[in-house]
Write a structure and sequence with these properties.
Length: 276
Amino acid sequence: MNKKDLDPTISPAHAFGVQFRRSREAKGLTQAQLGDLLGVTGTYVGCFERASRMPHIDTVNRADEVLETGGTLALMYWNIRHTALFEGFPEFTECEAKATELRLFELGIMPGLLQTPEYAQVELAAGVSRGNISTEQAAERLSFRLARQAAITRQPAPMIHVVMDESALRWQVGGPAVMVPQLRRVEELAGLPNMIIQVAPFSLGARRPFHHSLTLLTLPNHMQIGYVEDMKQGHLERDIPTVREWSRDYARLQADAPSVADSMATVRAVRKELER
């Protein structure tokens, strides 16, 4: 199949093949040269680019490193294998991977972008024990969740603003052995130049505008979109008045929540309680 025959709108696999080829060509590499760097043959690279064969995730991760894609190929890979993910979520992560700004609000649980592998494993294992997901689905969600964290350090780095409800700190996922490293992780991430983390305390009461988790994305063309989830599916919101209203409410939440310094003091206090 000639490369012109690939239509990225046909399927996520075709989109992956097109992006794989474009990333290789942007580096000025032949299929054989890239194959040598990935430990596969040039013929296999051609198969990946024609969407006739999918690479192993280890090969995808290596390709992201060699081609300096910022984790884009891994995200697209997991989008293809999205059977364990919420409806609407794969489309959201495609937008997340190229957003210039992310604004998150989370209730009851640490945002996925901030989770340690241990925290994520325990949280997903609980879904398996309840019979909500299978072991295979939990493993798939874990890999996808950790792959998304490349957004924190990709270049150019997006601005990430997180406001988490105090319940995310208080809900002990895995007990102190898991929560203490998780809270340390939050403190470390708060020190990054592109990361702002605030904690919305219980005392905000009715001033807290959201009763569900929410993500607002700003895309390179300055368009803003929102994403919300319920128990069954995710919804990507592009309606301008709706997103504008969510954005105003988020701005109020940012203003009402304690500063980063005060929020980190709360995180440290909870961590020290658990350490004792």
